[in-house]
Amino acid sequence: MTTKEPSEYVTLISNDGFEFIILREAAYVADTIRKMLDPTSNFAEAVTGRCTIGQFNGVIIEKLCEYLYYNLKHKDAKDVPDMEIPPSLCLELLMAADYFHC
User: What are the backbone dihedrals phi and psi of residue 67, each rounded to the nearest 5 degrees, phi first?
Assistant: First the structure.
């Protein structure tokens, strides 16, 4: 019996139905998503590669995806420039960062 290799990509789904397909490696930056996708977790997300994020809308999940790629790109860099965040999103993004442990 062979085990199916997980896809290189995963899908994050916002509470308003937007879907974001991102690299699994980028998704793993967020501890919560990494645990959801862990093959040993027995979560449905680990089998399907689709994470429904019921707490946040598409605007916040899009910015989360930007951050995940930003973090992956600069993970070993020094003097990394700040990521642009609109002030109107700061509170929701802070809550998302807390939820996703990233």
Answer: -65, -45
pLDDT digits (tens, 9 = 90+) for 19-44: 999 999 999 999 999 999 999 988 99
pTM value is 0.89
Q: How far is CA 63 from CA 33, 69, 89, in A?
A: 15, 10, 9
The maximal CA–CA distance of the chain, rounded, in angstroms, is 52
Reported as type and span, the H/E element at residue 66 is helix 58-73
Residue type present at position 16: D
Three-class SS of residue 52? strand
What's the Cα-to-Cα distance from 87 to each of 17, 59, 73, 90, 92, rounded to whole Å?
A: 24, 13, 23, 5, 10
